[in-house]
Design brief:
- With 713 residues, the protein is of the alpha+beta class.
- The chain has ten helices and 31 strands.
- The protein has a 20-stranded antiparallel beta sheet, with no helix packed on it.
- A hairpin with a 4-residue loop joins β9 and β10.
Length: 713
């Protein structure tokens, strides 16, 4: 829908005040008004440059079209920047366009491309030489003024995390564009000393240094970070705590995240180059911890400000869920930010679909060194035990040069097979895994990396009869491998941040860049097993469009011994259309297996995408699932702890292969979404009511209620 302005004058500003987006009144000479007013002035001058570019006969049609497209893009981005500056943080709409790190990166790439064919700069540039070049240089100076005003504003109030860096890089781009436009026959840039002017060498170099100090891109020098300021806040702000005593108690019980922990996770230090993409990656990493309900990293001049808002991390676990008609519950306690240092500790009892368990876990993201992650899990099962321990340094950022991780797992438990929705066999499974994996960065830049990866993995699996038909004899039920593998990984970085997608009242990060990895290995013969090969590959990618975005992922893995063994190929594609409080989501996914290990089945049920059906409804060796869902965010945060949304959905699935053969399942229903806005983990509760449209193998139809944490897909 377009914007309609029925009346230009309102008389609301006759007293020297104006309204910001959302309604707040503010003086017209306030620094915020001056900031976005100057951005508007800059946009108008770029309009002059575009007009001059259209009417000037000196350039080729290709050059005119290239410059016009670039300036049009910048003008649209400046509209978004002005809108953001005209909005107080608390009034910003979740879908409001803002300047992101990718916009800064685009400017840097354009600077490099435009500057490549220009002659070396040996003197300062006198603005002028042609209308297009002159307007671009005027735009550069206004852009610098806008940057100065926004810098002042950022010292007093919150601004977008990339606004200042964007203006800084835009002024560099406008300098280069001014030179690029002057290269056309129609225009020639006037240069300083050494180009026909009577001027001393000292004066010429002083003028050059003065121009470079003002920020032309010819210098290509990034500013360095002078200081880093960390501003952590509690679960409830001081204003919220002052209104309600329970909020004060919650803040008193909660241990605020230590600045030292936040500092350990930063990808930059004072003295490092100020790079927008590194600030953005740090912000995403902080959000990924799940400890914060909000995290922002922004530049204020050469100072970097890191702002975090803690979430409530002590969870007295008392959950109840119903998936596929099977009730599950758990009791216990979990702390996800122990002592404010990012450590995690928890214990509890859980009744799951196939077993009950008592568990204990501990995790430390910085054991002995920053980013050296440790995790221990110990579980006593009603039918056995599980124990695992992991330690190592992953590729926690795109420019990390190496990674090395170790993992140990010991498990003994009952594994169950199903046919026709009923239990058909129970086997005792003994599993041992020891793995060392890692990699080294081969090359790349701030937005992509190529890596050499490898691993050494020992796996042992033993299946024994317990109830029902016994497992098959031979190597299929007694497997031992020592795989030595090597491979390649390409990682891209093209992130977008959205709200009200899969969570309520949270920033969510999605990577649209293409990322893929492939790894192959060999294992020597053990027992009756012959020499075995292994191959695994994965691919993710995405794209954006005006009202949303789409994501794709694919995986493939197999063992190789006279053909494929336990081969699995999976794919998942989903699209999001976001408009106002609505999110329309579509997803299609498939998983196909060949010559699966005896204990493995591919199921189609309430846990794999068709919410109206009970667990283990259909078993086979391949499935295809499609889902559509309309989600609406109805009630924003109230009582500072809850928000509400609703959903309507339809699910359909197909299953093939033994033991159940071909089946088609489908359902439709409605749901309630409850956002627990101050919780760190499981901050979305989902309650769905689904009507079965096709009976399962046992002929069951009717309604099914399911409730759990997180979205269904």
């Amino acid at each position: 829908m377009g914007i309609r302005i029925n009346r230009v004058y309102t008389r609301g500003g006759d007293g020297g005040e104006t309204s910001l987006v959302g309604g707040p009144r503010i003086a017209k000479d306030a620094i915020r008004i001056q900031s976005y007013g100057t951005v508007d002035e800059l946009n108008a001058i770029l309009g002059l440059a575009r007009t001059a570019n259209h009417e000037s006969p000196g350039a080729s049609d290709e050059d005119r079209a290239r410059l016009d497209a670039l300036l049009t893009r910048i003008q649209n981005e400046l509209f978004n920047l002005g809108s953001d500056l005209a909005t107080l943080p608390q009034d910003r709409h979740p879908k409001q366009p803002v300047i992101e790190a990718r916009h800064v990166t685009f400017h840097e790439e354009t600077i490099d491309a435009m500057n490549e064919g220009l002659p070396e700069l040996r003197s300062f540039v006198l603005p002028g030489g042609g209308w297009v070049s002159a307007f671009l240089h005027q735009a550069r100076t206004v852009c610098r003024r806008a940057e100065r005003l926004v810098t002042t504003l950022a010292r007093q109030e919150a601004v977008g995390p990339h606004a200042l860096v964007y203006l800084n890089r835009l002024s560099d781009l406008l300098f280069v564009l001014g030179r690029w436009a002057a290269r056309a026959p129609r225009e020639r840039a006037a240069l300083g000393a050494g180009e026909g002017l009577t001027r001393s060498p000292v004066a010429g170099w002083c003028g050059l240094l003065a121009t470079l100090a003002a920020g032309p891109a010819a210098a290509q020098e990034r500013p360095t970070i002078s200081t880093v300021e960390i501003r952590p806040t509690d679960v409830f702000t001081n204003e919220e705590a002052a209104r309600f005593f329970l909020y004060r108690w919650a803040n008193a019980l909660h241990v605020r995240t230590k600045p030292s922990f936040i500092e350990s996770q930063l990808l930059f230090r004072p003295g490092d180059p100020l790079r927008a993409e590194i600030l953005a990656e740090t912000e995403r990493n902080l959000r990924a911890f799940g400890l914060f309900r909000a995290a922002h990293v922004r530049a204020e001049g050469t100072r970097v400000v890191v702002e975090t808002a803690d979430a409530w991390t002590l969870l007295i676990r008392g959950s109840l869920s119903n998936n596929g008609g099977v009730s599950e519950y758990s009791l216990g306690a979990e702390e996800y930010n122990l002592l404010g240092l990012g450590m995690q500790f928890g214990f509890g009892f859980a009744k799951e679909a196939d077993r009950s368990s008592r568990s204990l876990f501990f995790a430390d993201p910085n054991l002995f060194a920053p980013h050296a992650a440790f995790r221990l899990d110990a579980t006593d099962l009603s039918d056995g035990q599980r124990f695992s321990i992991a330690y190592g340094r992953p590729f926690y950022a795109i420019e990390v040069p190496w990674a090395l991780e170790g993992f140990l797992n010991r498990s003994d438990f009952d594994t169950k097979l199903y046919a026709g929705g009923e239990e058909s066999a129970v086997w005792r499974k003994r599993q041992r895994i020891a793995r060392v994996s890692g990699g080294t960065r081969l090359g790349g830049d701030a937005l992509q990396a190529d890596r050499l990866i490898g691993s050494v993995e020992w796996t042992e699996v033993r299946l024994q009869d317990k109830d029902g038909p016994p497992p098959p004899d031979g190597s299929a039920s007694n497997r031992r491998f020592l795989f030595v593998s090597a491979g390649f990984e390409h990682v891209g970085s093209e992130w977008i941040t959205r709200r009200q997608v899969d969570k309520l009242e949270r920033d969510e990060d999605f990577n649209l860049a293409t990322t893929f990895r492939a790894e192959a290995g060999l294992s020597p013969p053990f027992d009756k097993n012959a020499v075995e090969g292994r191959f695994a590959a994965a691919l993710t990618s995405g794209t954006s469009f005006p009202q949303g975005f789409a994501l794709f992922s694919g995986t493939a893995s197999t063992r190789l011994e006279a053909g494929v063994r336990n081969a699995l190929v999976g794919a998942d594609a989903r699209g999001y259309v976001l408009t106002g409080p609505w999110a329309f989501v579509g997803r299609i996914g498939t998983l196909v297996g060949w010559h699966l290990d005896p204990e493995n089945q591919i199921e189609l049920d309430g846990a794999t995408g068709v919410r109206g059906y009970r667990l283990h409804a259909v078993s086979g060796d391949r499935r295809l699932v499609a889902n559509v869902e309309a989600r609406v965010f109805v009630v924003p945060e109230f009582w500072s702890i809850l928000s509400l949304g609703f959903a309507a959905f339809g699910d359909a699935g197909y299953s093939w292969g033994a033991p159940d053969g071909f089946w088609h399942l489908a359902d439709a229903g409605i749901g309630l979404r409850i956002g627990i806005t101050r919780a760190s983990k499981n901050n979305l509760v989902r309650i769905d009511v689904a009507r079965v449209l096709h009976p399962d193998p046992q002929g069951r139809t009717g309604w099914l209620i399911s409730f759990s944490s997180g979205q269904a897909f």
